[in-house]
Design goal:
Blueprint: H1 2-26, E1 39-42, E2 46-52, E3 57-65, E4 70-76, E5 82-85, E6 89-93, E7 97-104, E8 110-118, E9 121-130, E10 137-140, E11 143-150, E12 154-163, E13 169-172, E14 180-183, E15 187-190, E16 195-203, E17 208-214, E18 224-231, E19 234-236, E20 240-247, E21 252-260, E22 266-272, E23 279-281, E24 286-290, E25 295-302, E26 309-318, E27 327-334, E28 340-342, E29 345-352, E30 357-364, E31 371-378, E32 382-386, E33 396-401, E34 406-413, E35 419-427, E36 442-449, E37 457-459, E38 463-470, E39 474-483, E40 488-492, E41 494-495, E42 502-505, E43 509-513, E44 517-525, E45 535-542, E46 552-560
Parallel strand pairs: 2-9, 11-18, 20-27, 29-36, 38-46
Antiparallel strand pairs: 1-3, 3-7, 4-6, 4-8, 5-7, 8-9, 10-12, 12-16, 13-15, 14-16, 17-18, 19-21, 21-25, 22-24, 22-26, 23-25, 26-27, 28-30, 30-34, 31-33, 31-35, 32-34, 35-36, 37-39, 39-44, 40-43, 41-45, 42-44, 45-46
């Protein structure tokens, strides 16, 4: 019994172990083997048909990886009449494809076969080459002489190509020249005995002789030789007027000459292209008619009225058969550094040695920019001072005048010796570096004396006539009293009797040092006048005691309705 129980137990254990082993084998399935690359070519063969020797025909094939992995290789051929064009290598993953171009280009007649290798794939190639027909043609004329052509003109001439062969003749006419060109159609396809006409165009754009050979597009067709001479009949002395930099608000002029250098009369007109801000042709439009050898001078004005910067203009010369080159005008404008000195000379007259006499002068910019520099006395006996510090003297004095402003300065005569003394004041301008007018030099003269001469009166006139004035209207006139002696000339003006209808404007007194002057203004208002009448008025002015030697000044005017 014990043995039977042991046998049963062992049998049961064997069943369990067998079941466990079978369970493990069922849980581990077998893995499939990956597919390798596979080559497919579409189309599988190529027939190029019939073409002429010397020609070519292209087609394409598509290489595809219809398997897995990567399909790599190169499309190759080993036949002289077939050629793989462009890139021939390929590397394709599953499902990818590549396109390759194959060319059939036979050089000799006959049936042509070849095998194209694309990796493991092969593609049969075939084609038939026929010998090209021998073509003959007639070209007329084979030489074209355009003769002498005026510069700037265009001239057309023609030639023909006739097909003398039994086959259709095709080709393209071409020119290697930029002055001899083919106008219109350049290609042809001529059945037997047919003719095509072509236009050769000559552009005369530079003087001198020119030539070119026109290719007719067929080995059996003659070329066409072309020749021409370009002649200038109108010349200009310059094709560029450079005005440089000028001051804004000023005018600068430059000229050029037009000459007829041809053998026939020419005529035309000179003007601008309409975009010439700041430039103008004087007298524009300027019409001209020139026989051979004649010329005309043209003046261009550059007048930048406002602003600064660069300016440009094209002056055009037009006319029938004229072909004159245009003239380019350029220039730029700047606000100027203008310096105005007033007055520019002084006569101090007689001044006692050790004494002094002062005169005032001004420096103005008169422009859009500030100016400045140094004033220097060239000579002895004279010194400078500012209006703000009239008693601080120096022979050199710096100055600055703002744009559009005026500054006043003193020139003082301090004679240290007897006799005439002359000097000059040089005024430099260094603050503004633009173009413009420099400062004038101030000239001065005077005489050093021991005892001053007495004052002496000089009157610019002793008679003023204000003319005829309509009733209710006014008119002014002036006269001047000057001390031509020494010391101080002191006096006062007054009317002798009634002044009506005259009056003196402003102060009537004067105190004039040596060489000084004062202007007086007489004002006249015409009273009412009866129609058809003229009334004359006369007034008398007493010039004062110092000027008694000149008598009295008479003033006269007439009033009309």
């Amino acid at each position: 019994m014990r043995h039977r129980s042991l046998i049963v137990a062992l049998a049961a254990l064997a069943v369990v172990l067998t079941a466990t082993s079978c369970s493990k084998k069922a849980s581990t399935p077998t893995q499939p083997v990956p597919a390798g690359p596979a080559c497919s070519v579409i189309p599988s063969s190529i027939t190029f048909g019939t073409i002429l020797t010397g020609a070519h025909r292209d087609t394409t094939i598509t290489v595809e990886n219809t398997g897995g992995g990567t399909l790599s290789g190169t499309v190759t051929e080993s036949c002289p009449d077939f050629e793989v064009m462009g890139s021939s290598a390929f590397s394709l993953t599953a499902g990818q494809s590549a396109t390759v171009t194959v060319r059939f280009a036979p050089s000799v007649a006959g049936t042509k076969n070849c095998t194209l290798q694309a990796g493991s794939c092969t593609v049969p190639l075939s084609g038939l080459a026929q010998a090209a027909p021998i073509l003959a043609c007639e070209v007329s004329p084979t030489s074209i002489d355009f003769g002498t052509v005026t510069l700037g003109q265009t001239v057309d001439r023609t030639f023909t190509i006739r097909n003398l062969s039994s086959a259709t003749m095709t080709g393209t006419v071409s020119s290697p020249s930029s002055v001899f060109t083919i106008a219109g159609s350049t290609s042809y396809s001529l059945p037997p005995s047919q003719t095509a006409t072509f236009i050769v165009r000559y552009l005369s754009n530079a003087p001198g002789p020119f030539s070119a050979i026109i290719q007719t597009g067929q080995p059996g067709c003659p070329t066409v030789t072309c020749s021409a001479v370009s002649q200038q009949v109108c010349s200009v002395s310059t094709d560029h007027l450079d005005f440089g930099t000028v001051a804004t608000g000023t005018t600068t002029r430059k000229s050029f000459r037009i000459t007829n250098v041809g053998a026939a009369p020419i005529s035309g007109v000179v003007g601008t292209d309409g975009t010439c801000d700041g430039f103008s042709v004087e007298g524009a439009p300027v019409n001209f008619a020139l026989t051979p050898g004649q010329f005309i001078d043209i003046t261009v004005a550059f007048s930048p009225l406002v602003g600064e910067g660069a300016f440009g203009c094209t002056v055009l010369i037009t006319g029938t058969g004229v072909s004159c080159p245009s003239v380019i005008c350029t220039g730029s404008a700047q606000f100027p550094c203008n310096c105005a000195v007033s007055p520019t000379s002084f006569n101090f007259g007689d001044v006692i040695v050790g004494g002094q006499t002062a005169r005032q002068f001004t420096i103005s910019t008169g422009g859009e920019t500030a100016i400045g520099g140094v004033m220097t006395v060239l000579g002895t006996g004279y010194v400078l001072s500012t209006a703000g510090n009239p008693n601080v003297f120096s022979t050199t004095l710096g100055y600055t005048v703002n744009a559009g402003a005026t500054q006043t300065f003193n020139l003082v005569f301090q004679p240290g010796v007897l006799g005439p003394i002359s000097a000059a004041v040089a005024i430099s301008q260094t603050l503004c570096t633009r173009i413009g007018s420099p400062c004038d030099t101030l000239h001065c003269t005077g005489t050093g004396i021991v005892t001053p001469p007495p004052p002496a009166c000089a009157v610019s006139t002793t008679s003023l006539y204000l003319g005829t004035v309509r009733a209710g209207q006014a008119k002014d006139s002036t006269f001047t009293i000057t001390n031509t002696g020494g010391g101080t000339l002191t006096g006062s003006l007054s009317w002798v009797g009634s002044s009506y209808p005259f009056s003196l404007v402003g102060s009537t007194s004067y105190a004039l040092g040596a060489g000084e002057s004062k202007a007086f203004t007489v004002h006249f208002v015409a009273p009412p006048v009866t129609p058809g009448h003229t009334v004359t008025y006369v007034g008398t002015i007493n010039l004062g005691t110092p000027c008694a030697g000149h008598g009295q000044l008479t003033v006269q005017a007439a009033a009309v309705p």
